[in-house]
Amino acid sequence: MNEGPQANVVAFKNAEESGEDSRDFDYRDFFENGAVALHVVSADGVILHANKAELDLLGYPAKDYIGRHIADFYPDRDMIDDILGRLAGGEKISRHPARLRAHDGSIKNVEITSSGHFRDGKLVHTRCFTVDVTDLEQTRSELRQHDSTYHQILDGLPVAIYTTDQNGIITYYNRAAADLAGREPEIGKDKWCVTFKLFTADGEELPHDECPMAIALKENRPVRNQQAVAQRPDGSLFPFMPYPTPLRNEDGNLIGAVNMLLDLTDRQRAEEVRQHLSAIVESSFDAIVSKDLNTIIKSWNHAAERLFGYTADEAIGKSVTMLIPDDHQDEEPRILERIRRGERVETLETVRRRKNGSLVPVSLTISPVRNATGQIVGASKIARDITSARESEQRIRMLMREVNHRVKNQYSVILSMVRESNKRSETPRQFESQVRERIMALSRSHDLLVSDDWKGATVSDLLAAQTKPFPRGETIDMSGPPVVLSPNAVQYLGIAFHELATNSAKYGVLSADKGQISVKWDIAGVGASRLFHLSWAETDGPQVQAIGHGGFGTVVLKRVAPAAINGKGNLDYGPNGISWSLEAPLATVQASRGE
Fold first, then answer.
1. Beta pairing partners, 500
2. Range 3-132: architecture per CATH
3. What are the tens digits of pLDDT across the range 430-483?
4. pLDDT (tens digit, 9 = 90+) per residue, 12-26?
5. pTM of the model
6. Does 153-265 carry CATH code 3.30.70.1120?
7. CB contact set of 588 (below 8 Å; sequence gap of 6+)
8. Do the bridges between strand 254-263 and strand 237-242 make them parallel or antiparallel, or are there none, so unpaired?
9. How far does CA 582 lie from the centroid of its chain?
10. 454: left (phi over 0), alpha (psi -120 to 50) or beta
């Protein structure tokens, strides 16, 4: 124990003995040996005093308790800091729930009532009364456990049960009640009944506030023998017998009610339900068929007629094997074996035979059908025509093959770039820089293709994409008819435009503030012999150094790009600019309508 806390305790004792502020300590005679646990805490949280009831409550000798910081005995440090802060601010604490650590290590549940003693507006100490509620908390816990057990029992019952308060507001319902009502009631909001709508046995609408449960609460008596009919949100109806019974406390005062709903659906009602379900089955877009364990068809909806071509009269009573091709006959025994084991067969993709002998790909979902006693007596089968899905898969595969082909073409172009750049690079750094720039140029062409589903790109869009990264690239003058280039032409002309722009940025018009670049294209000829012409011309620029005879750019412009589209290229160097012309069959340049 440090000097600070000890000094506080001594000062507090001296104040008691001297009678200083005796009005603040007149609790001693009343509380010192009383049953109420009391401790006094300094403004900084040190325990100054504790009476016998406090020490007995926690089992500490006075020397191990007084003089220590109060937080040492609270497992929840944040909470005690909050309480001390509130007391320092002049707030009074009343029956605040807390936990205290006893000398034997056990945790006591307590309620704290505390207020501060102030002198000259400054907190001197706080007086805290501690009430042991451990047994009460244990009782509450046991009650919660009992309540939980009670709800678990009710939740497991197959009978619909719900409860309300004395005003009819629903406080609880079990799973069976929600299932029977066909809806999830809103706890604390729904009133009187869990059902959507109510009717009398004669079919007249019954307001909820006049239902048997409402009468039981209003008249404080059980209501019996009043059959009613309820409607679910889906429109289905069911007859039931309610058993509302008031609930009272030990003083006999009404505190709520419990209601049990007994489903009275008879054979006629069951038949109506079956008809309702039958209507759903008949309206389904999927073929729904039921069969017994001997493969005999028992039901056949309209979708089955459309899918397989047999009418219900032609199919019912026949073996379902008439739909199975010879090379798939082994499927049915395996399916029935699983159904007998109670298993469900999900998404079995197979082939079935129509009445006209044609085959149709289907996806089957097969489930066991049980009778009232739970015995498996057959199976229900949902068959979905997956012809369109198969065709979509084939289209996807074809697209993937096309993508694979185009990716391989990209790899070929990249390998060519790497190979030619390597031949003509003087240093590794130069090689790395040139390859990176050329691959980025190829990437820009690729982005144009991807954005238009690989259908192609216009000449102007390709030029803009390839010249945009260069200074003054946006000033290039472009003119020509709207021609959509094929994916192959986009890739190779894109490389050519990049090499032209790169050379211009180093030596030509794009390297200076003067000069003009003009790109023109047109189409000449008619029919299959039409030709595509394109020219790149630089004028009024600085004195041009050649791209380099035999350099990569020269190879691309004279040979690689023209050859890729079955054309011819011509490259000329003038004193103030470079010019490049290309001629190729339009058929090899322009995207076809099928692309």
1. none
2. 2-Layer Sandwich (3.30)
3. 777 777 888 888 888 888 888 877 788 999 999 999 988 888 767 789 999 999
4. 555 544 444 444 444
5. 0.39
6. no
7. 486, 488, 489, 565, 566, 567
8. antiparallel
9. 55
10. left
Structure tokens at 514: 């003067």
Query: Which single residue is written with the structure tokens 């049990």?
Result: 260
Query: What distance in Å separates the CA atoms of residue 133 and residue 98, rounded to the nearest whole number?
Result: 10
Q: Which amino acid is at 49?
A: H
Give the whole-angstrom CA distance, residue 542 versus residue 295: 90
**CATH for the stretch 274-385:** 3.30.450.20
**CATH fold of 394-589:** Heat Shock Protein 90 (3.30.565)
Neighbours of 83 (CB within 10 A): 24
What stretches of 75-156 show up as alpha helix (H) in DSSP?
A: 77-88, 134-156
| Contacts of 110 by beta carbon, 8 Å cutoff, 6+ apart | 57, 97, 98, 99, 100, 130, 131, 132, 133, 134
Enumerate residues 6+ apart whose C-beta is below 8 A from 550: 424
Per domain, the residue ranges of the chain are 3-132, 153-265, 274-385, 394-589
Cα–Cα distance for residue pair 514/144, rounded to 1 Å? 88
Could you write out the three-class secondary structure of 252-309? CCEEEEEEEEEECCCHHHHHHHHHHHHHHHHHCCCEEEEEECCCEEEEECHHHHHHHC
588: tokens are: 């090899």
Q: What is the pLDDT of residues 50-62, one digit of tens each?
A: 998 889 889 999 9
- Which residue is it, tokens 């007249």? 204
Locus of tokens 């009364």? 129
Instruction: Yes or no: say if 568 and 582 are a contact pair by the CB < 8 Å rule.
Output: yes
- In terms of Cα–Cα distance, which of 486, 469, 499 is closest to 409? 486
364 close to 386: Cβ distance less than 8 angstroms: no
Same fold, 3-132 and 274-385: yes
- Residue 247's alpha-carbon distances to 65, 165, 185, 217, 281, in angstroms, are 50, 9, 21, 9, 45
